[in-house]
Amino acid sequence: MKLHQLPVLCSVLAMGLFSVATQAQALLPDELAEAEAFALGYQAYVTGAVYARSQILMEKDIHPKAPLNAPLNAFNVYPGLATPQSTIDFTPNNDTVYGLAWLDLRQGPVLMTIPKTSNRYWTVQATDWALNTFGYVGSRVKSTAGTYAYVPPGWKGDLPKGVTRIDATTTGVFLQARTVVKPEVASDIDPVIAEIKTYRLEPLNKVAKYPQADPASPVPNTKLNNPVWQSLEFFGLLNRAWAFGGVRAQDGEVAMLASRLGIGPGLTFDPAKLTEAQRRGLTKAAQVGFKRVVFHRNENGELRNGWRFATNLGHYEDNRLLASTVGMVGYGANRAEEAMYLPAFSDAQNEPLSGGRRYRIRFAAGQLPPVNAFWSVTLYNLGDNQLRENPINRYAFGDRSPTLKRNADGSIDIHVQRDKPEGDAANNWLPTGNDGAFWLIMRMYEPQAKALSGAYVLPGIERLP
């Protein structure tokens, strides 16, 4: 059986076997009990991986022993652009300074005050616990200084006068404040760090008490090599995620079906209360679910010249598999109208990108990425999806790169290779750092209509001798 056939099988088993089990659970043969547990667990995994990822990232970021941390309902402002040493667990850009915050709306709205708006590109993106973007504050939507309220589902209270209401879709919320800077130019970066530090978050409920991490507990391991992602422990993490952040209405049926195995909001997942056959089924569900979710990054969108084109990120509706894929391998993508992300894992000859080879990306004159804000190409390790160390500390190249040099005909060549190119080519060098496998993301902020429609196609990644 192929992986893409599993959702159909799971739906059949989950509906059919559920009715059998409720009538005669004690008599269910091991073979059926294992199959049912696999079906229910697989659906819970594909739906819930994004929730679980939100939860564990939040638990790490509020832990006082984490390298960079802040409590719930407070911004954690990063001290510069992302580097290989950064503690950003998702796939970071190297274009903007980040201010990140995890909100707990279970006790009412949280107010965000922006005392000063920047004259450059800036945005605050709000996503729910399943990574659906439900609100933007920023330059593209022409926001101004003021106070904005993130309001939990079903809240009926009154907000202070002059506060702009933004309705959240879950009680757990992730905020990403981003402001663009000139990479490698400290004098441009430092003022932006100071500016984002003026952003303020404050619960409307002045007497609310919010959870805090136990300082004596270990800092959660959010990496994908953590055994939690492929073991029974995943379902305990999922329960915490659904209890904290809530379950979207369209995901409620999945949670209900899995509840008979102790999986769901408000439930305690206890493997000891399951049969050996059920434990086998759920363990296999976690292992197969993990592989399926990670693999889907190779399926979404359309491959064009080696770049994967898609405009469906940032808001997933019922596409649970894609939401969990983005949650696991990237986390927090913008909606296409704010920014487009085009990953590339292979060159123009459909061979995997390798740091031991030399590549060129040539933008013909007049064929630069069509954007109203800015664009860049960023290089990542294949595996941990993090920036890679290199001798000049350059992790991306784009229209703001201080050394950018055009050819005589107006075209631009980006040289992607381990060793420094000769002559003027060194100005547009994006180092691979080592011989290992890597991948690239083209980011286009505020893409124009021809980018969104697909009329504009990126040039292929040319392998050089």
Describe this structure as you would to a colleague:
By secondary structure, this protein is an alpha+beta fold. The model is unreliable at 1-24 (pLDDT under 50). The protein folds into three domains: 3-58 and 224-296, VPA0735-like domain (VPA0735-like fold, Orthogonal Bundle), CATH 1.10.3360.10; 76-203, Immunoglobulin-like, CATH 2.60.40; 301-464, Domain of unknown function DUF1214, C-terminal domain (Jelly Rolls). Strands 1-2-8-4-5 form a five-stranded antiparallel β-sheet, with helices on both faces. The longest helix is centred in the first third of the chain and has 32 residues, at 30-61. The relative contact order is 0.15. Helix 1 (6-24) packs across helix 2 (30-61) and helix 2 (30-61) crosses helix 7. The chain is built from eight helices and 19 strands.
